[in-house]
Amino acid sequence: MKFTAAQIAGILEGEVVGNPEAEVFKLSKIEEGTEGSLTFLANPKYINYIYSTQASVTIVNKTFEPEQEITTTLIKVEDAYKSFSKLLEYYNQVKLMKSGIEQPSVISEGVTYGSDLYLGSFCYVGKNVTIGNNVKIYPNSFIGDNVTIGDNCVFFAGVRIYSETVIGNRCTIHSGTIIGSDGFGFAPQEDGTYVKVPQIGNVIIEDDVEIGACTTVDRATLGSTIIRKGVKLDNHIQVAHNVEIGENTVIAAQTGIAGTTKIGKNCLIGGQVGFAGHLVIGDGVKIQAQSGIGKNLEAGEVVQGSPAFNYGDFAKSFVHFRNLPKIVTDIEELKNKIK
């Protein structure tokens, strides 16, 4: 799909300096620009590239004035970085603008769906599923019985949504993610074996949640596992049964959250963090990567380590960790002098 500089300027409310009919059909970095590409200049470190780029159109700040001859057509805006981000979002919407039901696919009895549904080939939709407007479900996805999906959701290829799951509006779930699989519940027996505890709860995902690829969110044993509105989960995260994650909390990849832990809102959690079960994590907590959380955390705490403790104390202690061999040598020398 091709766009002219004038069309792009209209979307961004910008001013064209150069050829308004210059056409672009791809995006590029400014240093890698070629004919037919659109790029942007926001960082002053890259200003030299605007004089050599072969990109057909470049988005720049209104304050930019070239000091040498340029060949690229400029679109001047208030904030080049924000405008380029807006354009990426627009491009993504156009790219994902699909509708219709591809075959082969299965839609079971009792299913209702709104306008502009896209259902890719080899999808299965179970009984009594409710799907809102403008939902995109890409090929090889599974939607179990009695699932509810709100408006403007996107499920990429290979997503699995188990039965009874409730998903709000404007949610994005990436490929390979599984929502609603059984919680990890087994009762030990006297003979050393284990009996599976039935997991009869569900998963509730509120509005504006995005979940990365190959993440798993387990159904509750009883009640619900809940992902509150605005939560962002990275790839390869494990959310166990009956966990609750508060509004607008962001969690990086490879984090594991054991059962029944409650995480507050507006928390920032780094990659490879491990949570023990039945914990309460307050609002606004920040946890550095690779930390192990074995106790409750108060609102606003910043922690690191395994087991995790105050981040400032950890940073000071780490200086001593690195110097530990020298400290031991010094202690041995002092002991010898005392003797």
What does this structure look like?
The chain has 339 residues and is an alpha/beta fold. It has 2 domains: 3-95, MurE/MurF, N-terminal domain (Udp-n-acetylmuramoylalanyl-d-glutamate--2,6- Diaminopimelate Ligase, Chain: A, domain 1, 3-Layer(aba) Sandwich), CATH 3.40.1390; 162-314, 3 Solenoid (UDP N-Acetylglucosamine Acyltransferase, domain 1). Helix content is 15%, strand content 30%. It is built from 4 helices and 40 strands. The protein has a 12-stranded mixed sheet with strand order 8-11-14-17-20-25-28-31-34-37-39-40. A 10-stranded parallel sheet has the order 9-12-15-18-21-26-29-32-35-38, with no helix packed on it. Strands 10-13-16-19-24-27-30-33-36 form a 9-stranded parallel sheet, with no helix packed on it. A hairpin with a 5-residue loop joins strand 22 (186-188) and strand 23 (194-196). The radius of gyration is 26 Å and the shape is flat. Its EC number is 2.3.1.191. Residues 22-89 form the UDP-3-O-[3-hydroxymyristoyl] glucosamine N-acyltransferase non-repeat region domain. InterPro entries: Hexapep, LpxD, Trimer_LpxA-like_sf, UDP_GlcNAc_AcTrfase_non-rep. It comes from Flavobacterium aquaticum. Pathway: Bacterial outer membrane biogenesis; LPS lipid A biosynthesis.
